[in-house]
Amino acid sequence: MLAAALVAKKACELGLEVKPWIKTSLAPGSGVVTKYLEKSGLQRYLNQLGFHTVGYGCTTCIGNSGDIDESVASAISQNDIVASAVLSGNRNFEGRVHPHTRANYLASPPLVVAYALAGTVDIDFDSEPIGISRDGKNVYFKDIWPSNEEIANVVQASVLPDMFKATYEAITSGNSMWNQLPVTPSTLYSWDPSSTYIHEPPYFKSMTMSPPGPHPVKDAYCLLSFGDSITTDHISPAGSIHKDSPAAKYLTERDVERKDFNSYGSRRGNDHVMAREHLPTSGLSTSS
């Protein structure tokens, strides 16, 4: 992460900017990252390039980094463009980062910044310039890439043991918003019929305190049979809910605004949403 921040610093000093059609976001896996980025004084360079912290943990790799610009989304759809995402997360399934990104590449954080500056994945970093400096000169990958010594020095000065202790000793304390949620003491969960996040599934209604136990599965049918290059996200997406999907229609009918659709992953507790899963870019079709 500090290497990425150093790339951002060098780019800003040369006058480079992220291309306007690129969506950027920063979602560290831990609050400690924010502490050492601020301690190093490098966070401001990431902010300058648009890499503002949007949250911690699972965000970008499950489609929770937000929408892309509507004009960009329209251009992708209308021209059948194979749009790409470059992320330092751990998922590169088609449509996982966003329904409009069909090609997704995993890279180190500093490479993510470099590709955002280039504005394309179709580039040879060895021979093609990433951009033009404020004095009109070509800027190449080597001009913004930090040395191992630069990285080691900033790590030594900015990543301190007390940061980890301060962050994790309070991890179970929650926060004011979470701690103020009203809770009704009860042995059983109190289902809210108006909730679009958690809904009592039909198979819970007949469940008894004594489960029937395991039993053999006989004469079962194959539900789905696919060829190559099919992932779980094609079958049951976890990413963002597309505005034209059946799930979006279900939520809209219940007065949920588009900005609050969230992701399929966050609505796993509602069987009505999950039964309406839809991935517009998957290219899958069904027949009966």
Automatic annotation (TrEMBL):
Residue stretches of biased makeup (Basic and acidic residues): 268-279
Domain Aconitase/3-isopropylmalate dehydratase large subunit alpha/beta/alpha intervals: 2-119
Signal peptide start-end: none
UniProt keyword list: Iron, Iron-sulfur, Metal-binding
Annotated Pfam families: Aconitase
Span list, region Disordered: 261-288
UniProt GO MF annotations: iron-sulfur cluster binding; metal ion binding
Protein name: Aconitase/3-isopropylmalate dehydratase large subunit alpha/beta/alpha domain-containing protein
Organism per entry: Vanilla planifolia (Vanilla)
Lineage, uppermost ranks: Eukaryota, Viridiplantae, Streptophyta, Embryophyta, Tracheophyta
